[in-house]
Design a protein that fits this description.
With about 475 residues, this protein is of the alpha+beta class. It is built from 13 helices and 21 strands. The strands form 5 sheets. A 5-stranded mixed beta sheet has the order 2-1-3-5-4. Strands 10-11-9-8-12 form a 5-stranded antiparallel beta sheet. Strands 13, 14, 15, 18 and 21 form a 5-stranded mixed beta sheet that branches. Strand 16 and strand 17 form a beta hairpin.
Length: about 475
């Protein structure tokens, strides 16, 4: 009899604390009390089926195994028994705790991303709703990003799902001879850049010249241009001018700047190429990007108008040991001026020197460097409304395509006039380079209201979606 009792206890212990799975997969830890053991088993089987090594632990055991976890799942809300509630409360906002305690029938999952690890609280008003919260979580399409955050290669950085391409033919003249070539890029790439925030202060325009997503296509364009220059036998100065002639052939246009209430719409290089239009900063950013791909040290040069001449201008400075014409010495480096806008202008030849003050320029220094590049994964973002609680949960997926940690502030809420919200929720998210993060934001508001989402980095707006799709509705 005693042997049978011991065997039964052992079987129950194994059922609660271990679920067989592939040892090579991500390590998922489930924190559960004895009351929520059925929900823990359900979740464990689901995670194991997605290739995770699953371990079910008590609240007291979490600290000893947390460091090895890819993701931690906590079953139960702030009042869960056996110490689980104390852990849940660390990851829930006061509003979320209030919904779980106050609203009969309420259930939800709450995802946080802290220092490269996902924490998921699955909870409801009672243990029955906690079980239902597990089922709700399993029905989404974002679990793999929680278990496999490094699978960024499977994410479209553009957030769209089209196979279309965008093409443009270019024709230009240099040294009395005409040239032409074509450019084809994914239309998704162009749509991605046009959807980006463009209210960028001029002191940050250098960043546009070093965006990594466009580099493969700009490098391909550059290789075509350099092959043409080599076939003509051009020397270094002629090659520099040949690239400038290509950019100068793009028509000058203020159309998008006029549309922008702020007066400036700085384009990313891909936009300038495919719009086949731009003003002086757009041309300069494109030309500087091509020179950087060649390995040159460059500067974007802002030249203000002389007294009585309101307009300013932007050109490019390229560091050369030997050049010609207008140049500046900056921190021990000599930069030679080249205009990116006016067709036919050569190295060292200033535009409108009688009107522009070339003696007091402002230098911006674009360069390819390690910096974060957070992108909203638009096909993995949406709103789940719960009618009885008059509450919304926004599921947000963000990928960091950069080479440095992205420290973000993510805000979602019921949109009001301007940049204001009626109700909103905010989460701090820290994403390692080359990884994907999932977070949720929960707030109350009139069901099916328009919900806006935005992410900021160091206080600056990075990306925004004005109206999120509804991906689920609960009673």
């Amino acid at each position: 009899m005693h042997k049978f009792a011991c065997a039964l206890i052992l079987v129950l212990t194994l059922a609660v604390h271990a679920v067989p799975a592939r040892s090579s997969g991500p390590h998922a830890i489930i924190v559960s009390n004895s009351v929520d053991a059925p929900a823990a088993e359900l979740l464990a089987q689901f995670l194991a089926g997605r290739g995770a090594e699953v371990q079910i632990v008590s609240a007291d055991e979490l600290e000893s195994v947390e460091a090895s976890a890819t993701a931690v799942f906590i079953l139960g809300g702030p009042d869960a028994y056996e110490g689980v509630g104390n852990i849940s409360s660390q990851f829930l906002t006061a509003d979320e705790e209030g919904l779980l305690r106050r609203v009969a029938g309420y259930l939800n999952f709450f995802v946080r991303h802290i220092n490269g690890r996902h924490y998921v609280v699955l909870a409801g008003h009672t243990r029955e709703e906690t079980y239902q919260a597990v089922l709700l979580f399993e029905s989404g399409g974002y679990q793999d990003w929680i278990l496999y955050p490094s699978r960024i290669a499977e994410v479209s950085p553009f957030g769209y799902k089209t196979a279309d391409v965008a093409s443009r033919e270019f024709r230009w003249t240099y040294a009395g001879k005409q040239y032409s070539l074509g450019l084809t890029v994914p239309r998704d790439l162009y749509l991605y850049y046009t959807s980006m925030e463009h209210t960028i202060p001029y002191e940050d325009w250098a960043v546009l010249a070093s965006d990594p997503l466009s580099r493969p296509y700009l490098r391909s364009l550059l290789n075509k241009l350099l092959a043409m220059a080599r076939s003509e036998g051009f020397d270094e100065i002629q090659t520099i001018e040949f690239l400038a002639a290509f950019v100068q052939s793009i028509p000058y246009s203020l159309e998008k700047d006029v549309i922008m209430a702020e007066g400036e719409y700085p384009r990313y290089p891909i936009e300038t190429l495919l719009d086949f239009a731009g003003d002086c900063e757009d041309h300069a950013i494109l030309l500087a990007t091509l020179y950087m791909e060649m390995g040159y040290n460059v500067t974007l040069i802002i030249i203000w108008g002389k007294p009585g001449f309101a307009a300013g201008h932007m050109g490019v400075g390229i560091a050369l040991e030997s050049g010609k014409g207008l140049r500046w010495e900056v921190n021990g480096t000599t930069y030679y001026y080249i205009d990116a806008t006016q067709p036919g202008y050569l190295l060292g030849q200033p535009l409108l020197p009688e009107y522009l003050d070339y003696e007091h320029p402002i230098f911006l220094f674009p360069k390819f460097e390690n910096y974060p590049l957070p992108v909203l994964v638009r096909d993995r973002i949406g709103v789940i409304w719960q009618e009885s609680a008059r509450a919304a949960t926004v599921v947000v997926t963000v990928a960091n395509f950069g080479q440095a940690w992205a420290n973000l502030t993510v805000t979602a809420g019921v949109a009001a006039m301007g940049d204001r919200y009626i109700n909103s929720s905010t989460q701090e998210v820290n994403i390692p380079p080359g990884q994907v993060a999932v977070v949720t934001l929960t707030f109350q508001g009139p069901p099916r209201s328009a919900v806006r989402l935005e992410i900021r980095m160091e206080g600056k707006l990075v990306d925004r979606i004005g109206s999120l799709p509804i991906v689920g509705e609960l009673p």
